[in-house]
Design goal:
Layout (H helix, E strand, L loop, with lengths): L2 E3 L5 E3 L6 H11 L3 H24 L3 H18 L2 H15 L7 H22 L2
Antiparallel strand pairs: 1-2
Length: 126
């Protein structure tokens, strides 16, 4: 298992779904608005994954890059480490104009979102 470092220099492992420290910091910061943020995050990610599938089929690297970038940014804020890592990976592949070959990676992102949602619900006691 590899250890990587996020922008806040917090060590995370490849199999970590949600960084607990980042997650709790965001929860403390937003207080009662936190659950609403989670719902918006999940809805937006689902929408972006649908759009990523479409961009992949249309070989639209520019749109794929923008979608992956937005997905990565939202995931960083919440501490969704797998989503962040995979979004960053897709963003770089789009920069290299390789979105047409990335259907498996986009499906990995969809699975990572399901895992993140399960982890988040568990943390929220839902």
């Amino acid at each position: 298992m590899a250890t990587i470092t996020n922008k806040d220099m917090t060590a995370i492992t490849d199999d970590e779904i949600i960084n607990a420290e980042q997650f709790e910091d965001m929860r403390d910061l937003l207080e009662e608005d936190f659950v609403d943020l989670i719902q918006v995050y999940l809805t937006d990610c689902r929408h972006r994954i649908t759009k990523l599938r479409q961009a992949q089929q249309e070989e639209d690297n520019a749109n794929g890059f923008e979608l992956a970038h937005a997905l990565k940014g939202a995931s960083v804020n919440l501490g969704a480490t797998q989503m962040t890592r995979l979004g960053s990976q897709l963003q770089e592949l789009c920069r290299e104009r390789l979105i047409s070959e990335q259907a498996p990676l986009i499906e990995d992102i969809a699975i990572a979102l399901q895992r993140a949602e399960q982890d988040i619900n568990q943390r929220l006691g839902q």
